[in-house]
Specification:
alpha/beta, homodimer, 7 helices, 7-stranded mixed sheet, two-stranded antiparallel sheet, globular, about 20% strand
């Protein structure tokens, strides 16, 4: 049985042992004082908290460059998701497969979701279509929307979670950190 | 002159007026009690804090689907960045332009960065090339790396900032929120 201490775990994540212990404490009792954590069961418990063991299902709306990049490269199964299908309107791509994932016309979205549970819709459609496609996903019964459209969609249902990936948040964070260091260097000169 | 109150600002961002006031207070004095903020100067001051006014420059390494999607769709100028060039190794793309951005062979990276200041390198190369390309960017003198490779690159220089976009962090957040709601619904039944 492999164990890991909170300080070793913290070191590999760039955190202090105390942060690790406090964060895990929010979710219950893990490990044993002085003995660390059993790696296998810690992994399993964290996976359970994150819902990785729930077998969530997902469809992708929009197979442009970004949608295609995510379908081809993102490890859905490692994150506990099954990618069932993609939807688009372009005749060039409807009826084809991308990395083994079938691409259907978006007209078939509602029928597809009625036939089987779809937990999450991933949105990579153009901004102009973002809100409408978000509405259709909610109507079709998804529980979550993973939004890459750079448009802040409004969700009519309080039961549906929207998680947006805004690249600009990340670039502005980088911009801020660079600017702070530049200021600091100027002050030192 | 257009003004906005902290409560109106908070409402549009999904925050409370108090959060807005506290957050801005971290960076100095903004607005005037009872009169709100002047929109123009608040925008300018926040832009200054984030370094949007610094004219930062950027190059993209890797023009696969993700790199291409970002070059074509991301609004660099809105975020205060100028995208100067992209680099790749594929003969199919080297020498072409993507949305007006020239694509050079990665062999030319060092010469390019020596000829003009390049503040940030955006990494969308395959995982196997991530660390090596990160090292080359640091050697070439960038101040920041915007890392989309899903690989936690190690940065030899303490002066270079690495900002990583991990899609899985976002999907696991969504997974967690969906699982929490499912548990809550089960408890209510």
């Amino acid at each position: 049985m492999v164990r890991i201490s909170s300080s070793a775990l913290g070191k590999s994540m760039g955190l202090t042992a105390s942060q690790i212990r406090q964060d895990l404490f929010c979710f219950g009792e893990f490990g044993q004082q002085g003995y660390g954590y059993k790696v296998d069961s810690l992994r399993e418990e964290i996976g359970g908290i994150l819902g990785i063991d729930q077998g969530h299902t997902l469809v992708v709306l929009g197979t442009g460059n970004l949608g295609r990049a995510i379908i081809q490269n993102f490890r859905f199964s490692t994150n506990g998701f099954r990618l069932l299908a993609a939807f688009d309107i372009s005749p060039a791509v409807v009826g084809t497969e991308i990395a083994g994932v079938p691409v259907y016309h978006v007209d078939r979205l509602e029928a597809f979701c009625a036939a089987r549970p779809v937990d999450v819709g991933l949105l990579t459609v153009p901004i102009a279509a973002a809100q409408e496609m978000g509405n259709r996903l909610v109507e079709a019964g998804v529980r979550g929307i993973w939004n890459f459209t750079n448009y802040e969609i409004t969700c009519a249902s309080p039961e549906v979670v929207v998680e947006s990936v805004h690249f600009s948040d990340s670039l502005l964070t980088l911009s801020y950190m660079i600017s702070q260091r530049e200021k600091h260097e100027e002050e030192e000169e």
